[in-house]
Amino acid sequence: MIDLEIPKKLTALLQQARLVADNVFRPISRKYDTLEHAYPKELDYLAALLDGVNEGGGGASAKKLTKDKAQKNGANLAAVLGMIELARGDVGLALTIPRQGLGNAALAAVGTDAQKQQFGDQWIAMAITEPGAGSDSAAIRTTARLDGDEWVLDGEKIFVTAGERASAVVVWATLDASLGRAAIKAFLVPKPNPGMTVVRLDHKLGIRASDTATLALIDCRIPKANILGSPEIDTKKSFAGVMKTFDNTRPIVAAMAIGVARASLDRTRELLRVPSAPSDRGHASHVEVELERLEAELEAARLLTLKAAWMADNGIPNSLEASMAKAKAARVANELTLRCIELVGPRAYAEGELLEKWARDSKILDIFEGTQQIQMLVVARGLLGKTSAELR
Ligand SMILES: Cc1cc2nc3c(=O)[nH]c(=O)nc-3n(C[C@H](O)[C@H](O)[C@H](O)COP(=O)(O)OP(=O)(O)OC[C@H]3O[C@@H](n4cnc5c(N)ncnc54)[C@H](O)[C@@H]3O)c2cc1C
């Protein structure tokens, strides 16, 4: 039976994440939004602290969560709840914690024991998107060919989160573009590599503390063992292997959306002096009713997200629920953060308030890891029992 109670054993983790959000992220939030491409060096200290906690065997740090993800012991639920707290502090900074890249999730989901051993302590970005391949990842044109004991990668990747800061990148490339999805594989490219260079960093609307890089791969050579999953091209299986990563990561993006929305709602209540307990005046103001509507939307998103994570922890296929959670949570965060600005008024639109930043930060959550429209497609396919070829 489904159980979405927050387990007691997570109390310490969530307290830790809350402290980081309030005392590490919030005080530097505006600084790194303004500095944009400057690396938030304060996070090195945080990463070292988390490592220390791990090595001591106590607590449940972010690194431990990544490692535990494969172990079906509530780690997905822990990761989602922890991310809600961190994103309440700052989404861009949460995306910049060393060794917590999207590539780390891919390694945890589909890496071999040897690869996990070799790359477990690295900060790994994930490079899927190309100028001609965004939502339609089957259109990837970056190539991989075997040359003796090495894979040779050639192509261009855009919008790579942590593409500059990460110490390795999981690069998606095709073994044979004529064979479509089935020939797309993921490769672990450690840095530095003379064949992989950062071409530029993008200036963005939000999550400016997180670097977004364009990478050029020219005769980029890596060991033969660095392929994630099997090198066989199985046209029946499509690219289920690499796509599996998203079942774990979409609820995490949903968690980011819930965190930033929570932050906006709490700050709005504070500024408008509307406490979360219902008023006992016998009637509610328009603002109170509106805030309760937003609370209900947020709670619906939160419950969907916890359900998707709970299913992953219990070995139940959750692609449909992971997409439902991300679609709902990101849409709610977009609407809610803007509505909070309207409710508070001009003060919320000014740089003196983080409310304007949170509205900007929230937009990306409805774009990366699959846009709103793509999540709806995945949901529709799941409900109607259609394949990606039948419904596109
Ligand atoms: C800040 C940032 C960070 C990112 N980080 C990463 C990263 O780390 N790694 C990575 O690989 N990528 C990353 N991305 C890329 C991101 O995942 C893509 O931008 C996203 O998948 C959309 O692809 P696209 O930009 O090519 O848009 P397109 O696919 O061209 O879509 C444009 C519009 O058309 C809609 N659309 C597309 N296809 C359909 C369809 N079949 N039905 C209905 N509507 C459709 C989309 O929803 C969207 O609204 C990042 C992007 C940004 C902006």
Structural summary, described in words:
Strands 1-4-5-8 form a 4-stranded mixed sheet, covered by helices on one side. Helix content is 50%, strand content 14%. The protein contains 13 helices and 8 strands. The protein has helices spanning 11-35, 42-55, 62-68, 75-89, 91-94, 102-110, 113-119, 240-272, 286-313, 319-344, 346-349, 354-363, 372-384; strands at 124-127, 143-147, 150-161, 168-174, 184-190, 196-201, 212-223, 227-228. The protein is globular and about 75 Å long. With 392 residues, the chain is of the alpha+beta class. The longest helix is centred in the middle third of the chain and has 33 residues, at 240-272. The structure holds flavin-adenine dinucleotide.
Question: What keywords describe this structure?
Answer:
single chain, 392 residues, alpha+beta, 4-stranded mixed sheet, 4-stranded antiparallel sheet, 8 strands, 14% strand, binds flavin-adenine dinucleotide
